[in-house]
Amino acid sequence: MRWKSTTYAGWGRALRAAGELARPERQATLAALMADSPAPAIGKRRSYGDACLNDGGRAVDMTRLDRFLGFDETTGALTAEAGLTLGEIVAVMAPRGWIPAVVPGTGFATIGGAIGNDVHGKNHHHAGSFAQHVRALTLLRPDGTQARITPEDDIDLFRATAGGLGQTGIVVSAELEMTRVPGDIMTVTERRAEDFDAFRAMLDASEASYTVGWIDTTAKGDSLGRGILEEAEPASGLVPLKKGSKRVPMDAPGFALSHPIVRVFNEAYYRRVPRRGRTVVRPVDDFFFPLDRIHDWNRLYGKRGFHQFQCVVPLAAREAIRDMLGRIAGSGLSSPLAVLKRTGPGRAGHLSFPMEGYTLACDLRALPEAEKMIRTLEDLTADAGGRIYFAKDALCTPERIPQMYPELDAWRAVVAKADPKGAMVTDLVRRLKLREAA
Q1: Known Pfam families for this protein (predicted)?
Q2: Residue 392 C-alpha from the chain's centroid
Q3: What are the residues facing 22 on neighbouring strands?
Q4: Sheet of 338-343, strands arranged across
């Protein structure tokens, strides 16, 4: 297998790595590679920070191992290689009346990445996390051996792999539980929430299959926490014309996302929904992956890149979210991209992110003052009994991780057996000392 030296980054572009990558096209080639020179796997690198980086080392790019392997029309079980993206699955399967049980906010996430981060979607309050719908996975261990893992037959290894950041080995393929849908369109109802209390009440009362909220992080005072709630249901019928994709051709200048411009944009975005609300029909991928039509949209944050802060706090700690929103609005660091959702208790692994509560995600340009703000938000999260999302993190320090993830020691014990030589360690794992016992 040929290794190619390159420099690469996560989606936030603020953290980078230099090292050697291999891109196997066949499972046999991958197995030979792992037997000779084991290394962690990466996919489309849609993790925002350093979860997908191995600076100074090697990594296996799985994106060429992207084949559909089988589908059972009766049970809805889809088997595919780990490099296949969820967007490709939706594009092929939605017209046939099936979609993955859980779909995250980008279609560029691969199956392997979705398992390794145990991603969640707009239906987490009903459906739980992605890996809860993985019936089985084929795991290639760092020693070159391969095994079929199920949550029934090997619960400890499965729970260490789901949300386990690739530390037990490389997921080669998986059998996924799909959800039947009437068609490949979504009926979406949009409503304004005038402040945080109204927003939270709407989230709590929602019984829709899919629910997500855009939140205006520039709003202050009586409007603090205002936003737009989207509730959606799969539907059938005429498919609206899809909008063409666009590409950001260059790194945007610093003023492009300055506070005055973001404030004006957010005001217009909030007002685009009538006060009485509205219901629209969208293609299924436009609803699930709204930003994927803008290729390289991360370049809008300029050459320095950006950080995304995402936390979840328990239901009883909702005032912590209000506090965070007040601090972000007062900082002048806001961006147009901020999301508030209600999450349920579902999680598949020891290090899976979700808990029953509220999750807030916000993008901030990679500036020193933004990094200071994010560290403050992380402290507020930990103090509230919540946790940060490894798939988005670039700045957290190791001290608070055991508090946020109480099953960390159980995960460490399994990983130590699966990868005793530390061949699968990545930059995030090193930075947060995830594999180092207290």
Answers
A1: ALO, FAD_binding_4
A2: 7
A3: 60
A4: 278-283, 185-193, 227-235, 210-215, 338-343, 357-365, 306-314, 387-388
Local confidence pLDDT in tens for the 438 residues of the chain: 589 999 999 999 999 999 999 999 999 999 999 999 999 999 999 999 999 999 999 999 999 999 999 999 999 999 999 999 999 999 999 999 999 999 999 999 999 999 999 999 999 999 999 999 999 999 999 999 999 999 999 999 999 999 999 999 999 999 999 999 999 999 999 999 999 999 999 999 999 999 999 999 999 999 999 999 999 999 988 776 667 788 999 999 988 889 999 999 999 999 999 999 999 999 999 999 999 999 999 999 999 999 999 999 999 999 999 999 999 999 999 889 999 999 999 999 999 999 999 999 999 999 999 999 999 999 999 999 999 999 999 999 999 999 999 999 999 999 999 999 999 999 999 999 999 975
Q: What is the residue type of 263?
A: R
Neighbours of 187 (CB within 10 A): 17
Contact indicator for 85, 107 with CB cutoff of 8 Å: yes
Return d(Cα 28, Cα 23) in angstroms, integer. Answer: 12
Burial group, residue 225, by CB count within 10 angstroms (0-12, 13-18, 19+): buried
d(CA 56, CA 398): 21
Q: Give the span between the Cα atoms of 10 and 17, in whole angstroms.
A: 9
* C-alpha torsion sign, points 256, 258, 262, 265: negative
Pick one of 3.30.565.10, 3.40.50.300, 3.40.462.10, 3.30.428.10 as the CATH number of 185-397: 3.40.462.10
The domain segmentation of the chain, as residue ranges, is 185-397
Exposure b/e, 266-288, CB count within 10 A at least 16 = b: beeebeebeeeeeeeebbbbbbb
Which among 177, 169, 122, 114 is positioned nearest to 151, based on CA atoms?
A: 177
